Amino acid sequence: MDQQAIVEDRPKPAWLVAEPWTDVNFGPVKSGKEAQIDLVERTGSDGRSCLLALKRYAPRKVATKGQLEEAGFERASTFRHDVVYREGRQFRKTRDRRAVERMSTYGKRLLQSRWTDHEFLVTKRLWEEGVPVPYPVAYGDDEYLLEFIGDATQAAPQLAQARVSDDDLDLVVDQIVEGLHGIVRAGFVHGDLSAYNLLWWEDRVWFIDLPQAVDLAANPQGLNYLHRDVVNICGWLRRRGGEIDAEELFAELVATAYG
């Protein structure tokens, strides 16, 4: 991967290893409809090592099962109806805009690249805002490296599948609300928020899977997506016994975004 490291004002995490480094890919730990997550161990010149997640987007171009397996993927990327999420994101070159409108082979490659760097850059911005997202390490083409949430024995479970005690439920509610305020302060909406796009690890909620995040101001559907996100996650929390009102939270988030 021809990596492009990010540059941010916040100090880099202490667990990052020193250059030069070597990576060992232990293979997939999760496969979804759009991407596959591989576990990577990176060892630096200082002898320290860290675990990273390599997110590899599956090809958008229709491919046979055999071709996907040869490339190391279980299924192809879909991103159905992705045009509504792309509103507000502009291609500067006229040639690029036309290629995307015509959905030529070149245009499809542009869209795949745009989804990859969009998720990376949104995650970077949220990390700088202090939102609990995995630290974005580097990206290139159709894949990028980010902090692995978990340890050497297991990946952090999705919130929907985690064993959250009744005593921890209030903590979960508070962290989700705080994270949502941070996301809208940064100018974004998750766009696909559910208990399956949140992780629970060491008493902390992590926001993940941001390729469909939208610019709250630039996308005309931004507030609708925000409302949908809030209703979805509040519904799940209330079914678990959480004390939270979706409409009240939505109003608070709108005030945060535009206050």
Task: List descriptors.
259 residues; alpha+beta; Phosphorylase Kinase, domain 1; Transferase(Phosphotransferase), domain 1; 2 domains; six-stranded antiparallel sheet; two-stranded antiparallel sheet; 10 strands
The CATH homologous superfamily of the largest domain is called Phosphorylase Kinase, domain 1
By helix and strand content, what is the structural category? alpha+beta
Q: List the total number of helices.
A: 7
Question: H/E order of the elements?
Answer: EEEEHHHHEEHEEEEHH
Question: Which architecture of the largest domain per CATH?
Answer: 2-Layer Sandwich
Task: Count up the domains.
Answer: 2
The number of distinct β-strands equals 10
Distance between the termini: 41 Å
Largest sheet: 6 strands, antiparallel
The rough form would be described as globular
Helix and strand topology:
Blueprint: E1 4-5, E2 21-31, E3 35-44, E4 49-57, H1 65-70, H2 83-86, H3 94-102, H4 105-129, E5 136-140, E6 143-147, H5 166-185, E7 188-189, E8 198-200, E9 205-207, E10 214-215, H6 222-239, H7 246-258
Antiparallel strand pairs: 1-5, 2-3, 3-4, 4-6, 5-6, 7-10, 8-9
Helix pairs in contact: 3-4, 5-7, 6-7
Report on the architecture of this protein.
30% of the residues are buried. A six-stranded antiparallel sheet has the order 1-5-6-4-3-2, with helices on one face. A two-stranded antiparallel ribbon has the order 7-10. Residues 61-81, 88-93 and 96-113 have low confidence and may be disordered. With 259 residues, it is an alpha+beta fold. It has helices at 65-70, 83-86, 94-102, 105-129, 166-185, 222-239, 246-258; strands at residues 4-5, 21-31, 35-44, 49-57, 136-140, 143-147, 188-189, 198-200, 205-207, 214-215. It has two domains: 4-147, Phosphorylase Kinase, domain 1; 159-258, Transferase(Phosphotransferase) domain 1 (Transferase(Phosphotransferase), domain 1, Orthogonal Bundle).
